[in-house]
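Researcher: Please predict.
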Amino acid sequence: MPGADTQWSTWIQNETLVTFKNPHAKKQDVVVLGSQEGAMHTALTGATEIQMSSGNLLFTGHLKCRLRMDKLQLKGMSYSMCTGKFKVVKEIAETQHGTIVIRVQYEGDGSPCKIPFEIMDLEKRHVLGRLITVNPIVTEKDSPVNIETEPPLHALSLG
């Protein structure tokens, strides 16, 4: 586990420090915060060196950086899909920004689990709405969960 000693300003195991950017549906950007000394040496290779009278060195040229993530390990958990039944425990509520909130309760076993949710026509050929809540999860049986979604497209009223 990375950390800083209170008596020193340097970090211990800083090569393991990473930060995650905003998640996306298909990707997760990761930024390594560890030592970048090697990357800087590579980036500055071939740069023009200028000696100044003050004794400082200036480097000019194009800077390029590469990030290696071959030893990155993500730790966490994933849930299986809920297989039991759900019931709507509260009337569907409309929000002020054009979406609806459905409050459901899981009646099956095997929680925590992911809530399978889609808005499609009866033949399941066409998507009629869009899920706003990202990866809704049941944490406990009989515990209500709010799911925000766009209403079916044909149910929208204009004007």
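Model: The radius of gyration is 26 Å.
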